[in-house]
Amino acid sequence: MKNLLCKVPIFAGLDDKALKMLLENAERMEVPADTVIALEGEDNNCMYLIEAGEVCIIKNFNTPNAVKLSVLGPGSSLGKCAFWKRCPVPQREKPPARPQ
Description:
It is built from three helices and four strands; from the N terminus they run H-H-E-E-E-E-H. By secondary structure, the chain is of the alpha+beta class.
């Protein structure tokens, strides 16, 4: 899974320590075809990396106005916003200097 993580642009520059932390909190899932991973508007605290297969992004799912926005394949990711909201903000050792 580390190789997959390194291919995602937002994680590509992380050192081994940071990658290890992410991997300790990661969970590999196999999702059957036609399974809904997340619904528009629902609370979600996960980021998904696609290792194999495809994921369709659909606006207004299960309505007469459903629109397929995109199809994501291997190496793609979704749920980045949920992921970043979940991560703690690093603390500074001291406040930045005030401009004079």
